[in-house]
Fold this protein.
Amino acid sequence: MLSKWNWIIFNLIVCVTTSPLNGSVSEDEIKAFLQLIELDYEDACYNTADVHWSFIISPSSKTLSIWEVQQYNYAESIKMWKNEVIDKTENTKGQLDPSLQYKYDIIKTPGDALLRDKDWEKFIHFAGTIELQRSNYSREGILYCNFINYLSYIKYVEYFLSHNGKFEDKQAAWNNWYQQLIPLVTNYSNNLLLVAKAAKVNGAKNVKEYWEMLSGYSDGYDKVKNEWSRINNLHKKVAKFIGTNLAQKHEFAVNDTLPAYLLGNLQGYDWTDISSDVLPYAELIYGIKNNLWKKKYVGKSLYKTASKLSSILLKQVPQAEFWDKSEFNQSCPSRLLNFCQDGTMRVSTCSKATMSNFLRAHEDMGKILFNQMTIESTPILNTINRYSGLEEGISTLFGILSVSPAWLNHTHLMNSTNDNEQRMIVSLIITALNVLPRLAYYYSADLWRLNAIQENITDPAGLLSSWWKHRQEYEGVSSISTDNPTFLDDNHIVMNKPYLPKILGIMISFLLYEYTLDSTEVRYNNIDGKLMNSNIIKMIQQGGALRWQDILDKFIDIDDISADALLSYFTPLEEFIEENEKEFKYKSGATADKELEELEKHILQEINTPTVTPQPTTRNSKTTTATLDKKTSNAKNMQAKVEKPLESKSSVYIREDKLNNSDSNLPNKISLDKSSLTVDTLDDTQDSTHKINTSKAVWAVSAVLVAIVVICIIAIFGRQRCRKTPKNRRYV
């Protein structure tokens, strides 16, 4: 903290003493000025993230209102800083240094926050309202199954889609969820048109150019278009192979598309949880799924496992604050939030040991460590106003490595087999079901929005029809009813963010994989402690001050992003499908599915059952008990159980007779009330914030006193004073 305030004081001195009398501004003065703007950005970003976090954890009309007010203030600040930077640099002498020019450009074109006040208010209100409405639907209770009698509606639907069930019942549950969102489509059509206005105020010719600017890659959509035909051929082969097997399992007619409600989740672009339905080596995948539950890889325990991979690859682990402040017993998919100070991030996730969550935890860990390692060199402006394809690339690389045979062996998730080909194919199919559907969905979603804006499609029926047309063409996914607005379940789409950096990031991840391993083979041995190439580590640590595509070129000599490495990686899988698609006979996994569901019931009961703490019998027992009650919550009890040694006697391996009779031993209800956890968490946060703010206040007062002395001395000698600074500046 001291060094940061010393830097502020130094910049004030520079501001006062270096401006020549002719009114021109030196590069040193601009550098100092931009540093001060960045500190303002940092504070604003932290405050906004803090409010957003409260809204995510405790969605309500109150937290929504606070979030909206914070967003309005944030936009006003961004506009003010933009104007200040333009005023300050209008008399600049000569061309700026590339790093300064880069910062200047980002401040000048910050993105959607430049919208007119009324448009920004509409945009934010719609995004917040739709998230709150989804949350309200998510909290509607519903009776289902034998082992949990009360769960939120969305958890019920997600469970139903990802587990065994009748074709018609899955379709009905999926339809019922999205029918509730149909009234919101009209407002979304107005929201989407604001992208064109945002492009205009940021100086872009059209939305395509605007999203490419925010993604840091000019002509990015043309690049993806050139590569898409090759990726699409691979995607279609995998989708056809899956469709044939799903059709046999659910007994429906095969066609060129897959029913969206049979893909394991609501949105239908993550297919990893149906992997055991589509392979001749299904027993290995069932083994992985069983082991995820047996080892209780859920919530915090799962992210601890992912952090072990980051420790091996990057010699880094998340900061203590990540573990203390994150919420590991909320809902999925996980929400990762950047707090913009010292690389601090938090995650809100659920306690489910699924293949999808295993991959997501490792991908989240890649982002967490990327931001933590780049904090010294990456401008906060990159974090706030731009989307990094490089960050997405590191994230997806962690996902690829998480299901490599080497890491599955290291974590004891894959049962032993001497057949390396089976291990390779299992690893490849899981990766393919994670990566390829996402690629297709991202590309389809961006093209759909660009097309709707260009053709001015604003009526709800036209938007829905166009949406399903794009999904069918690019993803191979369909729905009998085309009035289901699945896009309203996507925060990225609701917030008008481009998927382009994620598309580029996936292609980058395979280029990094190939660069690191110097091969497209999937490793079978243990993860090597020196697996990550040192140039990649240097790229992450030192390369944040420039555009990320320039960084790729500078550190690892990648000047062109292509799908070559991705296609090379999946070549063995493509050959396997071509050889086996005609001869492959579907083998029912109903028995294995039932056993897996029984195991899941048992483990969920075990980790959700509160631990009874014996009360002390001393004179101060009342005080001690009250203190313990304050500090203990159901979520913490659950996490304590999850973090027990994996080889403990906690019924990790369930006998068959217990599985068959488990229903009778399970509780009727499991409480999902997290009010006690929320209160404790907020109290801890407030205490921490109070201490931090007190420390900041001490240094702020010191900085002000020193600054006043310096300014007075200079004023005495007739030197030029600094311009008047706004009241909300950090250094005041």
